[in-house]
Amino acid sequence: MIFTTQKITESYWKVAINHPPVNVFDPEFSVQLRTLMDELEANENLKVVVFESSNPDFYVAHAELVNIFDFPKGEGKTGLSKSWPDIAKRLEQAPFVSIASIRGRARGLGSEFIQAFDMRFASKEKAVFAQPEIGIGSFPGGGGLERLHLLTGKARALEIILSGDDYDAQTAADYGWVNRAFPDNELDAFVENLARRIDSFDLKIIKKIKATMNERVIIPQNEHIMETQIAFFASLTEPEARTRIKKLLDQGLQTYGDVELNLGKYL
Amino acid sequence: MIFTTQKITESYWKVAINHPPVNVFDPEFSVQLRTLMDELEANENLKVVVFESSNPDFYVAHAELVNIFDFPKGEGKTGLSKSWPDIAKRLEQAPFVSIASIRGRARGLGSEFIQAFDMRFASKEKAVFAQPEIGIGSFPGGGGLERLHLLTGKARALEIILSGDDYDAQTAADYGWVNRAFPDNELDAFVENLARRIDSFDLKIIKKIKATMNERVIIPQNEHIMETQIAFFASLTEPEARTRIKKLLDQGLQTYGDVELNLGKYL
Amino acid sequence: MIFTTQKITESYWKVAINHPPVNVFDPEFSVQLRTLMDELEANENLKVVVFESSNPDFYVAHAELVNIFDFPKGEGKTGLSKSWPDIAKRLEQAPFVSIASIRGRARGLGSEFIQAFDMRFASKEKAVFAQPEIGIGSFPGGGGLERLHLLTGKARALEIILSGDDYDAQTAADYGWVNRAFPDNELDAFVENLARRIDSFDLKIIKKIKATMNERVIIPQNEHIMETQIAFFASLTEPEARTRIKKLLDQGLQTYGDVELNLGKYL
């Protein structure tokens, strides 16, 4: 079980992510996340869900690169690819509020994972963010080219994506990548208080606020997301990408060790 | 007289807001604000107007909740509701520059009031911001769902609106809710210098800059503003809202005291 | 030679700007910049270019005001005016990445110059930013009314343009005007590392990321840029502008001295 759901109340759930050794987003992660999403949507009383990692060093490391062509195929409920874009869209459009509470690395698809949540809060000491795809001869394929600039603006999104480098939580907060960064020992109390507050409010008002906000703001277009995802998968078959990926895997990518801890330096 | 206008020069006016005990935005506030707006628009030489509060603890507390259905009815000059949306639109489209210099609480309609100004500056020690409507079983009805995300982005607007909690001035500045936060003893000098500078420039150039900027940026749509306002008033007739409002009024809402000073904790 | 190009590698170039005494953007600057732009575009292997100033006090001071009507006339490759808007558009659409590394003043057209780059980094101690056009009876005519609000949001863009005042690098970073501000002794190492990283990545991926991002974000409209530029030139023929410009020139504008160093105070 990658996702363990703790029902704090009927309407406030907490999900722990645990997929050793580094919480890669692999085909199995995708399958179980879809099952979890079905469960969240089936609870019509759900007001708020918080996603944490059980691994203090990794929130969601990135997409698994050896079996990346084994992700679930086909369309999900939204018409978007089942692999992940469909779930991202469902989180965005969900009647409940989704919060990412982040310790550890959230790179690549891990960064795109949190971009699909309504809000993001991070530990100043422990959270690390990156879109490292350029280092494997590719580019963000899971929404980063569609969502990151909505959070950070174009100039900072280009910097993040073209550098492929690691960003600490304070810089991520300064850029809008996350809502706010907190000292590690304050993060849990803040998120708990926020979730409890939301849980204390009226369900239909929460739904109304999310639905109205989604009508007011710019939402990534489905065609853009699919166009980028298709190009992303195609890029991975190129010799350049295969060479870069092989080298990183040989150095220890996807195992617990220095490459995963300090990926920015290895690209 | 809720609004006292001080004519620093022919083209630079300062308005003090004083409506004891806590500067609620009530029907009388709306009526007098419209008269003031007429006066500002009638002065064709006006370049800049600064709005301050005479009450160090409250800028504009929020909408008055007992007589909330007594707000002026009908359409104003812009086709928007006279109660407030028409004035907000007129501030946005005005040829003169409007500046909010903020000490004290600006919550709910008080926060939406300042969002309609061209610029906002706040005291780090004394300014407090919130969209607390969710705590009375409702949502921002005076433009908050249309304007706040243009200042803060979607994620932070959702956090603010769904938490209903109090935000200090530095966080408000980090989020873009206000332009900048200053130590309390520097705020007046900054705003005075800024207003004097603008007052020293050419009137037709000021008009040209505001008009051009309004053509370049995303402006809230009138239909969205009215749709939300109508839904807001409807929500207040629901039992959930009536119960929540009654409880807060019984605790001391709209009087000078701890509920108004620390509303975030009471919701 | 205003621009000296150093070819660090075949695909990473560095350009030094040197046009004594204060790096004004004059007709000669425009002509040579177009030649440089042709050269950058002709290098199909170029991945990244960094623009620095050789003058520690001035990055690009502003548009030259005595010979401002002698800028190159006619349309460039993009259909926009050759004088500058065409080059700005070509930088935006270029397959390579452009980075401004900023020490010294970047005011007016100097500020608009850096807004056309993909990314901007500034020295906390030495960089100064302004859109001072209002002080000469005009408004930003080189893209500032079209691009600045995309970086800073409307409220802060209005503040900057209507105040005409000087902004330090930290405030510019807080506002999004630049990506980040660094202590002066860290700026070069950061930019060098970033440029080297980009230079180490795959050329076609860099092109793909820039092209896709440009399709995802809001890009200033050509008609808006030309409309503003035409109005800008017209404004300079007005008596108000001519009087203000003459006074500043008499005080020492465009020479190395206190007016140029502290222009914000003189407007």
TrEMBL record, chains A, B, C:
Family annotation (SUPFAM superfamilies): ClpP/crotonase
GO molecular function terms attached to this record: catalytic activity
UniProt-listed InterPro entries: ClpP/crotonase-like_dom_sf, Enoyl-CoA_hydra/iso
Pfam families listed in its UniProt record: ECH_1
Entry-linked Gene3D superfamilies: 2-enoyl-CoA Hydratase, Chain A, domain 1 (3.90.226.10)
Superkingdom of source: Bacteria
Protein name: Enoyl-CoA hydratase/carnithine racemase
Protein source organism: Chryseobacterium arachidis
